[in-house]
């Protein structure tokens, strides 16, 4: 008879194969309009993920084998064209503009084609028609654009451009594995925390699959936690500004970052951060780059809405009193409220070690995301990556629930969100919060435990 350990290893191997099949089917064979089938296979992948993490608690996964399998699952998507998101078309387009010496902040895509005397056909037509942002200037920070420029060196070949972006993301995923492992080891945590991140299907599909750069943001945040625990001020500042340089979102961690240091160190941290921000963002100071960047940013904040929670509730309630969409007013108000909450956390929650810093980061991200008008699935990844180091598991379950938002793409010609699906996503998330957090709330230290 097969021993119990051998039996578990067989079950683990079969689960990994099912997971791999799910990733392959979603990455190569299902367009995003097949939202029901996408959801079925994602549910299979997420269930496999939970089973793998459960088996890992028994020590069936060594560090080497776990990392190897995590990379294999990512490498399965190496030759796939992203199907769940079309953002990569703009990434590659911006990169080609920079390679030609043109600023993606100065010209709209159609204007850029005319300015460069490019014939609007073939490869350029593919990029123009594929992108969802041809009517506004690029919103991606200069550091982010560096990787787009790197992708452009693949020439007028979509597959080569995609492959370069994917390899960059995979390199930073390895760095994320490294930082997580080092932090887990330093904090005396179980290796189980590492597998919570490395095997998560949302992480694999959105980073390696859909070419989103939140993984690079996470690299910065993890380096902050690692170096903050060692009280290495300059390295912590570099990690934070790296995240800000790739995506602006980590700016919201500013109050927490600054006030976590003593008075003298605080001033030094500020000076280092300001210098690094200037280095990262100086291209925006040229010509009208900053003005156009700000216009696109404001447009994004005041016009677009997707998979929101509190905002959708307010919009629904406002429908009883006004006959227009109040996003232009409600969006800035919610951002103001988010800023007030984040500032309060930064002022009053002063972490003394990396664990407390990670916990505070998680609550800041949660408040921020719940008050946004747009919450794409990949927005959750930096918060989730940090949260695996804490007792906070709300982001883990959100990585499972947020995939429901892709049902909005079942119509090929327009985004059509089903409010029942949105209610299901956030209702389940709220249910988890109240069931798994509030009943274990400890008033003596104001922390949630599970």
Automatic annotation (TrEMBL):
Keyword field contains Transmembrane helix: yes
Record-annotated membrane-spanning stretches: 12-30, 36-55, 67-85, 158-181, 202-228, 240-262, 269-286, 327-348, 360-381, 421-438
Pfam families: MptA_B_family
Keywords, ordered alphabetically: Membrane, Transmembrane, Transmembrane helix
Tree of life domain: Bacteria
ATP-binding in keyword set: no
Coiled-coil intervals: none
The protein, known as: Carotene biosynthesis protein
UniProt source species: Shivajiella indica
């Amino acid at each position: 008879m097969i021993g119990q350990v051998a039996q578990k290893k067989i079950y683990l191997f079969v689960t990994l194969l099912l997971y791999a099949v799910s990733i392959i089917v979603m990455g190569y064979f299902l367009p995003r309009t097949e939202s029901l089938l996408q959801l079925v296979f994602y549910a299979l992948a997420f269930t496999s993920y939970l089973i793998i993490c459960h088996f890992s608690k028994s020590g069936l996964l060594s560090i080497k084998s776990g990392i190897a399998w995590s990379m294999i699952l990512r490498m399965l998507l190496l030759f796939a064209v992203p199907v769940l998101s079309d953002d990569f078309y703009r990434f590659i387009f911006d990169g080609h503009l920079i390679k030609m010496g043109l600023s993606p902040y100065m010209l709209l895509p159609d204007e850029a084609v005319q300015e460069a005397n490019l014939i609007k056909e073939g490869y350029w037509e593919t990029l123009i028609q594929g992108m969802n942002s041809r009517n506004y200037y690029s919103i991606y920070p200069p550091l982010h654009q560096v990787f787009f420029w790197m992708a452009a060196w693949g020439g007028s070949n979509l597959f080569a451009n995609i492959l370069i972006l994917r390899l960059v993301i995979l390199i930073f995923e390895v760095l994320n594995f490294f930082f997580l492992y080092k932090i887990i080891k330093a904090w005396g945590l179980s290796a189980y925390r590492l597998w919570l991140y490395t095997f998560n299907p949302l992480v694999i599909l959105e980073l390696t699959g859909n070419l989103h750069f939140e993984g690079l943001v996470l690299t910065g945040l993890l380096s902050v936690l690692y170096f903050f625990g060692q009280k290495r001020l300059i390295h912590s500042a570099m990690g934070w500004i790296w995240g800000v340089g790739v995506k602006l979102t980590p700016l919201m961690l500013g109050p927490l970052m600054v006030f976590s240091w003593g008075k003298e160190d605080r001033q030094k941290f500020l000076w280092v951060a300001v210098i690094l921000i200037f280095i990262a963002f100086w291209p925006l100071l040229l010509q009208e780059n900053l003005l156009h960047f700000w216009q696109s940013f404001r447009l994004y904040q005041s016009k677009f809405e997707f998979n929101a929670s509190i905002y959708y509730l307010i919009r629904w309630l406002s429908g009883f009193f006004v006959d227009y969409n109040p996003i232009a007013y409600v969006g800035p108000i919610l951002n103001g409220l988010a800023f007030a909450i984040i500032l309060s956390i930064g002022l009053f929650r002063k972490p003394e070690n990396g664990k407390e810093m990670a916990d505070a980061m998680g609550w800041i991200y949660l408040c921020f995301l719940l008050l946004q008008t747009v919450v794409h699935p990949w927005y959750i990844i930096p918060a989730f990556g940090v949260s695996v180091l804490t007792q906070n598991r709300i982001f883990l379950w959100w990585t499972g629930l947020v995939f429901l938002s892709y049902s909005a793409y079942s119509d090929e010609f327009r985004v059509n969100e089903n409010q029942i699906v949105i209610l299901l996503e956030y209702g389940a998330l709220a249910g988890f919060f109240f069931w798994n957090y509030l009943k274990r709330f400890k008033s003596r230290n104001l922390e949630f435990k599970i």
